[in-house]
Amino acid sequence: MNRAIRTVTIFSFILILILLANLTYIQAFQTNSLAHNPLNSRQFLAAKTIKRGQITAGGQILAESALGDHEMYYREYPTNPAAYGSVLGYLSDRYGASGLESSQNGILTGDDDSLFASQIWDQLTGKEKRGANIELTLKPNVQQVAYQQLANNGYSGSVVAIKPSTGEILAMASTPSFDPSQIVQKDSDAAAAAFTQYSQSEGSPLLNRSTQQTQPPGSTFKVITTAAALEKGDDANTPVTGANQITLPGTNTTLENYGGSSCGGGGTVTLREAFRRSCNTAFAELSVKNGIDIFRKTAEDFGVGDNIDSLGLPVQPSRVGDIPDNAALAQSAIGQRDVALTPLQNAMIAATVANGGVRMEPHLISKVSGADLKTLRTIRPKKAGTAISKDIANQLTDLMKDAELYAHGQSDIASKTGTAEHGEDSRNSAPHAWYIAFSLTGDVAVAVLVENGGNVGQAATGGSVAAPIGRAVINAAVQEQQ
Question: Which InterPro entries does the annotation name (predicted)?
Answer without folding.
Answer: Beta-lactam/transpept, Beta-lactam/transpept-like, PBPA_dimer, PCN-bd_Tpept
